[in-house]
Amino acid sequence: MTMKLTAHLTLAVLFLAAPCAFAQDAAPDTTALPLDTVPPGSVSGLTAVDYVDNSDEGDRIEISWQASPDDGAGEGDVVSYQLWRSENAGADWDSLGVAGAGQTRYLDETATPGTEYHYGVAAYDGTSYSERVSAGPVVGRANLFQMTRLAVLVLMLVFFGMVLTFTKLAERGADLFVRRIPGLNAIEEAVGRATEMGRPVLYVPGIGEIDNIMTIASLTILSHVAKITARYETPLIVPTARAVVMSAAEEVVKEAYAEEGKPDSYNPDNIRYLSDAQFAFAGAVNGIMLREKPAANLYLGAFWAESLLLAETGFEAGAIQVAGTAMVSQLPFFVTACDFTLMGEELYAASAYLSREPKLLGGLKGSDWMKVLSIALMALGVILYYVNQESGFVAWFFTQ
Amino acid sequence: MRREIPLAITFLIGIFMLVDFFVPHHAVSTSAEEMKQWGTIVIAASILLGVGNLIRVHFHKIRRRREGWGYSIVTLAIMAVMFAFGGPWGTVEEGSAFNWMFLNMQVPLQSTMFSLLAFFIASAAYRAFRLRSAEASLLLIAAIIVMLGRVPLGQYLTRSWPQAIQLPTLTEAIMAYPNMAAFRGILMGAALGVMAMGLRIILGIERSYLGGEK
Amino acid sequence: MAKKRFDIRSVDRRIIFTLIFVAVAWPLIQPMRLPIDVSPPVQTLYDAIEEIPPGSIVMLGGDYSPDTMPELQPMVETFIRHAFENDLRVVVACLWPASPPLVERALTPLAEEYGKEYGTDFVNLGYMAGGIVTLLGMGASIPNTFPTDYGFGAADIPSRPVGEIPLMQEVENFDDIAFVMEVSAGTPGTREWIQQIQGRYRVNIGSGTTAVGAPNFYPYVSSGQLTGLLGGLKGAAEYETLVGFPGDATKGMDAQSIVHALVVVFILLGNVVYLISLRRNRGAEE
After folding, report:
1. What is the span of the domain harbouring residue B201?
2. Are residues A253 and A241 in the same domain?
3. Strands (E), A162-248
4. Chains in contact with C via at least 3 Cβ–Cβ pairs below 8 Å
5. Is the model's pLDDT at A20 over the cut of 50?
6. How far apart are CA A189 and CA A201, in angstroms?
7. Are residues A59 and A123 in the same domain?
């Protein structure tokens, strides 16, 4: 205390003397404050952990702390935090870097994997440092498992277990109930109608690339549709917006025709690559609809803004239309303009539904039960949240 | 053998990508990145297949004088012109002919097609939003509230009503609660469907996308 | 003999299309200036810029591409106009490759209208790849992150090292920037600016985004991390109203209002027709 007083007095004398030293017209600066020699409060809760993200070489350590009480509060004069690193448990410290005021985290990206480090942090207010707080030891490693994703792994394994269990059950002859999906029944009716009218079936597998799951789901349905059109010798037109999808569609349709014993009915000119450009594709498909007048339009796959362009034109051309997509933003357009719409997972269920193959049905049941589990977990979470709000029970539970 | 090799490749790479999601070790992640690049390159190379198909289909149409074969000539001619200009003089430079054609022909045509949506939405709305059933009526009422609430006109029409039932407030409520809930429900269901489908493809249970069953 | 009545059920689509065409075209040709209520996030943005002392330097982050131009270009234009009106100097920095020419398109007529000179009153630093890495670099040193500028086509000024640009002599990092206006259509965009720059360097960031993306950022506005938000064409129109120069966004909102009202009329009309025909059928059965 006496030290501080002496210091203040010394400074006061200096300030009063200063104007005399500069015997100018400069008026004494009466608004000058004495230099702040009060160091800021130190940080708390300092932790240093091995930082893990998607690509881990073991060279990153994450240091986090709770802000100094003088940072944005109290004295409010903290301007930065100084960080140090030590390789010998605090015997000597190397300056590591600076974090700005208000920050409570710093990523050290220069650590050597396998080396033990200690970290120190102090708040700085422009003139003095707080007491240095240290944490450690911590070692950076190239980790083999991302612990934050443990819950995902567990749930995924539970899910796969369910799928495989139901698959086995189905193979053994168990009767698995699947509710009626009108849209999928309508596909067969639509193809039948086209056959009666002697007009082609138009099958648009969306404009997604082959790595889009919706496109793959669409190709599995195409296989089924192609078998029906082969059986009744109805022309099947498949316009595509991606070259790889076109190749895959060619294979699918050719095989389907071969299986039905009608390899000569297969017309490769009906599997057409039109354009990668979204609206050029829509324009070209509209052209096909207006010229070749298909009686059944099937839109199954990934669609974007061109969905309504296709569906409206198809309606005007007088075709019966069945759509299926998991693009939620396009569902409203399909629902208004098409006769039947498969929403979201109904598209993925189609292959199981249409073929009734036990293996595929098992997958469907597994998904359903996983949904039940998810709903139960969500309900549990909501309940626990409100219980915690009222009584702090959950937080208490985890600190025990 | 023809079927086994693609299935084996699918299995191995599928499992490896799953492993990449859980294992952050850089040896795994750098390999996974490489593979994703290979995938992009393979797809890019397949554009040649698409062009080949396009040429073949239109060529047949011209040769057999099918209906509309004149348009096929136009298609092939324009493709040739774009190739001719794009190849030697480049496609990306500011002043190149290819760029000019893209900006002054392709882009306006695309915008025009896009703008057709405005007209189609009107004709679809006229035809489809009918009081056919309880659900259709709900759809109808929600559509009217949101359409008016999203534009200044909605605010203007109900400016003297209590805040809680003004059109913009009702619109926000509809978008934030029932709409968001349905959105999320479909997304979650679809996500599980994707996972099940993915598992079936990796394990080779689902193989019709390769063509046929056998 | 049954008279052939005008059957409204089979209204020719072309009539609907013509009405829509007129509804869209009329307000664009003859602006109606429907009153636009200004929402709080837009007002906050406007007020924050009004408080900046003349002569200060502000930054425009251009992170969008041609497909989002209809919604975002009016925001860019109005911000530049607002800045020039208040004698603020503008530095443009882009994280999306398509943005520099689009911002230049907005700068060109406004620079001429306000007599602003490139290099002294405004500069376009162009695009630098890297997203978050670029932002972190800017935090340390803007001239080091953007070593050359984009140039200014309208005045035939080519790209040069930033050392030669007078305005850039005064810009080292975010201590020299009074406000950041971030116009973004996706990633990297507003979220990255908030995470990397706002927390560290305590600079005010306002944002303009597409209508689809805006709801994601309202929490940042309430927490104060964003100083104002323009959401979609409506946000742009509100901002234009505040600045006092109704432009493309206001015209667009007029057209949108009329078209939405027209579609609602179509829906109601369709239902009236439907109900009448239902009653007629029921009557015929009885």
Report:
1. 129-214
2. yes
3. 201-206, 236-240
4. A, B
5. no
6. 12
7. yes
Q: Of B21, C83, C121, B82, which is closest to residue A52 (Cα–Cα)? A: B21
A197, A260: one domain? yes
Indicate if A79 and A168 belong to the same structural domain. no
Domain assignment of residue B206, yes or no:
yes
Q: Given the structure tokens 């509100």, which residue do they identify?
A: C238
Whether B138 is covered by a domain: the verdict is yes
CB contact under 8 A, B25 and A364: no
The verdict on a CB contact (< 8 Å) between C16 and B122 is yes
Q: Tell me what ipTM this predicted complex has.
A: 0.86
Question: How big is chain C by its Cα radius of gyration, in Å?
Answer: 24
Mutant choice from C263, C273, C274 vs B, greatest count of B C-beta within 10 A:
C263
Q: How far apart are CA C223 and CA A348, in angstroms?
A: 41
Task: Please answer whether residues A71 and A45 qualify as being in contact, where contact means their C-beta atoms are separated by less than 8 angstroms.
Answer: no
Number of other CB atoms surrounding residue A96 within 10 Å:
21
Cα–Cα dist A116/A89, whole Å = 8
Q: Is residue B174 part of a domain?
A: yes
Interface A-C: count of C-beta contacts within 8 A: 10
Contact A100/C202, CB-based, under 8 Å? yes
pLDDT digits (tens, 9 = 90+) for B10-59: 999 999 988 988 888 888 888 888 888 888 888 888 888 888 888 988 89
Give residue B213's pLDDT band: very low, low, confident or very high (50, 70, 90).
low
User: Minimal CA–CA distance to A70: which of A97, A99, A102?
Assistant: A102
Q: Please give the Cα distance from C118 to C165 (Å, whole number).
A: 9
Q: Is A309 on the interface with B (CB under 8 A)?
A: yes
The sheet that has A296-302: what strands, in order across it? A271-273, A236-240, A201-206, A296-302, A320-325, A340-343
Compute how many other C-beta atoms are within 10 angstroms of the C-beta atom of residue B194: 20
pLDDT along chain C (286 residues), means of 10: 49 88 90 82 95 95 87 95 96 92 92 94 92 85 91 87 93 92 90 83 90 82 88 92 91 90 91 88 78
d(CA A44, CA A131): 11
Q: Pick from C17, C20, C257: which is nearest to B151 by CB? A: C257
Q: Tell me the three state secondary structure of residue B139.
A: helix
All residues at 6 or more sequence positions from B17 whose CB lies less than 8 Å from its CB, including other chains: B32, B35
C99-114 and C69-85 are packed helices; what angle lies between their axes, rounded to 10 degrees? Answer: 40
Q: Give yes or no for a cis peptide into C188 (omega within 30° of 0).
A: yes
Select from C13, C36, C263 the Cβ nearest to the Cβ of B152: C36
Domain boundaries, chain C: 13-30+255-285, 40-245
Give the tokens for residue A155: 């749930």
CB–CB contact C269 B122 (8 Å): no
With beta carbons less than 8 A apart as the criterion, state whether C56 and C178 touch.
yes
Cβ(A62)–Cβ(A99) below 8 Å? no
Q: How many helices (H) and strands (E) does chain C have?
A: 11, 6
Domain with A368 in it: 147-173+360-399
- What contacts B139, CB < 8 A, 6 or more positions away? B129
- Are residues A196 and A101 part of one domain? no
Both A206 and A349 in a single domain? yes
First to last CA, chain B: 11
Q: Is residue B40 part of a domain?
A: no
Contacting residues for C105 by C-beta, under 8 A, at least 6 apart: C73
pLDDT for A235-273, tens place per residue?
999 999 998 899 899 999 999 999 999 999 999 889 999
Stretch among A156-160, A198-202, A314-318, B23-27 having the lowest mean pLDDT: B23-27
Domain covering C40-245 in this structure, CATH number: 3.40.50
Q: A238 with A348, same domain? A: yes
Number of folded domains that form chain A: 4
CATH code at A107? 2.60.40.10
* Nearest chain B residue to A358, by CA: B205
Same domain, A247 and A283: yes
Number of domains in chain B: 1
